Each structure stands twice: as C-alpha cells, then as structure tokens.
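Let's do one together. I've listed all components of the complex below, 402 residues spread over three lines.
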Amino acid sequence: MIASVPVQEIIAALLMGLGLIFLVGSMIGMLRLPDFYSRVHASGNSETLGTLLVFLGLAVYNGVSITSAKLLIIMMFVFIGNPIGSHILTKAAYKTGHPVWTKNRLPNEVLPDAEIKGGEADADLHS
Amino acid sequence: MRIFFLVLMGVLLATIGLMLQRVFQGPTIFDRMNGLGVITADTILLIVLFGFLDNQPGMYVDLAMAYAMMGCLGSVVLAKYLGGKKL
Amino acid sequence: MESVRDKRVVGSPAVHLLSMAVLMFGFWMLLSGNTEPKFLTYGVLTSIIAAWVSYPLLLIPNGDDTKRYFVFGVNPVKLLAYFVWLLWQLVLANVDVIRATVRPEIEIDPCVVRFRYQTDNPMAKVVLANSITLTPGTVTMNVTEDGVYEVHALTVGAAEGLRGGDMQKKVAWLYGESYDFELLEGKD
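Okay, and this is what the predicted structure of the assembly comes out as:
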C-alpha cells in the first residue's frame, strides 16, 4: 500500500503536516495568551515557520519547475516580510505606551488599562 | 493528496474565522492589526493551495506572490500610521 | 553618477553593480520563464538600467558618514551558513514556545531585555533585529540610534538565550565586525 505512493509525496505530506502543527500551535497561542506583546510571538513567529514548511512541502510535491522556484521566492518574501511587520507593530505599541504584561500582575488588572491605552492610540491618529 | 490539501484548507479557513473574532473583539487596535496580519499570511497559503487543487498552480502562484508583497507593505504602512509622530 | 567614484564606498562599485544586475536578471527569468532572444535582450537591458538607477539608494552611510556600506555587500557563503544556523534556531525555539503555550497551564514569564550592541555597519543592526524578531520567544521592540536594543522575551529560556549573546556573536562574524556587546540592567 505504502509502496504505491511515490517517495516525493510522502516527504511533501510530512513537511506539510509539520507546518500544519505549527500553524495550529500559533492559532492556539493567538487565542490563549494574555496580552498583545505575547500574542505577537504566537502570530509573527510560529506562523512564519508554519508557512515556510507548507511552502517547502508544496515545492517538493510540485517537483523541479519554475513554479517551485516561485514558491521559494514567496517563501523568501514571507521570511523577510513577516518579522518586519510584527516588529513595526510592536514598536508602534511600545512607543504609544502600551503596558507590558508580567507574571506578578493579573491579566484582569491590566486589561482595562490596556483598553485605555488603545483608546489613546486611537486618539493619536487624529492629532 | 487532494484530501490532504482539503484538510489543510479547512484548518486555514478555521484559523481565519478565529482571527476575525480576534479582529472584531481584540481589546486594542494593535490586536486587530495583528489578527489582520495573520489573515494575510493565511490567505497567501490558501491561494496557493487552491491553485494546486485547481491543477494550474502556475497562475495562482503569481497571484500569491503579488499578495505577499502587498501584505508586507500594507502592515508596515498601517503601523507607521498608528505610531504617529513617535515612530 | 558620482556614487560610482565615491571614495567612501566600502568594496568595489563595479562588483556591486554586476551582482545586482545578475540578481535582477535571475528574478526577471523567474517571472517570465521565456527564453526567446527578444525577451532575453529586454531582460538584460532592464536589469542593467534598474541596477544603475537604484545603486545610489542602496548605499547606507554609517554613524558619522565616513563610510558607505552596500546593502547586499555580504559574503554569500557566510550568509548561507548563517541562514542555515538561523533556520535551525528557528525550529528549536518554535518547539519551545509552542510547548509553553499549549500546556493546560500557560508557562510564560514575559520580561524586557535591554542590551547595547554597537556596529559600524547599519546592515548588521538590521540583520540582528530581524533575526531576533524571527526567533520565537523574542521580539525586538525598539532599536535606538546608539545601538540600544529593547527586546520583549516571552519565556525564561528565550531571555537567557538572548543574554548569552550567541546570535550577536554570529552577526558580528557575518559582517566581520568586532564583537561589542553589553547587557544593560534598567527599569523593567
């Protein structure tokens, strides 16, 4: 049964399965983590590796062709662009005074404060 | 392999739905932006996967490439705008 | 085009222009996928003109404007080695962060790490900040003009790895800079 499936497809499926695990992990982190800065870790980074692995799997599945090369180029874009996006977002939040959640403060204490800060960032748009 | 692609697309669609919830609910404006970034990254994957299901990946890969460039640029520009003069 | 004769440029402008043109021609070939002589000629001409026009924009001055560094002026072999190392780090750190996140009880301890890392080449700064952000568990929040980095670390392990200065050493090696790293203990 297994011998009838080409090796190429098995490798591709393995890579994509690994990518799927990281994508689901990033989704769980995005929903569970307490504040904005920690959610950036989940979204920006696990997402990058998951996307990278799925693209790699697709390139292996497709074989050597110009489409695979384009897939690798998209991979490069994601690899460079994703960290830039999350960095500039964190920088904007940091500069507008969004508080950093730490362990000894409960999330319930911080959240209303964070809401006010978010409001300030909103107000900044119009100044 | 088609079934595998369909499962992957289902997971991505579920992620996009949950991220939409984050976009609408998320306490601060930055959470909303973050959710949008994740949706962008997932959409790129979704486009490519749909191309493979449609048996003409060449065309969809070009679309995905354009989308990847725009997504990176868009989030940077919006974050610059949010940061205002302090950034 | 005075930037070609600019004495402050590090390295040889001819090599820079040639490598840029070759890179751009490769990208052209990838997008078109067409090998007719007409399109090849168009591609060569376009990539040479684009390299010539955009070259002055890709020269970045250092702090006191005594030297100008080319953005892609880095040893490709070293870059490849760094890339492989970075990918490996990426996988390791990612497994760490996902393990901490998926547990029934979330095991995170966010803190802000501050350190100073001075380099002459501005691209080293960019590469370091980008690599730190790419590695899960650490996100660069701010980089100041005089090289103070403020990094948000998610777990204890990520913060310890950053304080060890492993990645800083690698970037210094990549750009042939001296290793100038100092940990700052300040307000949280």
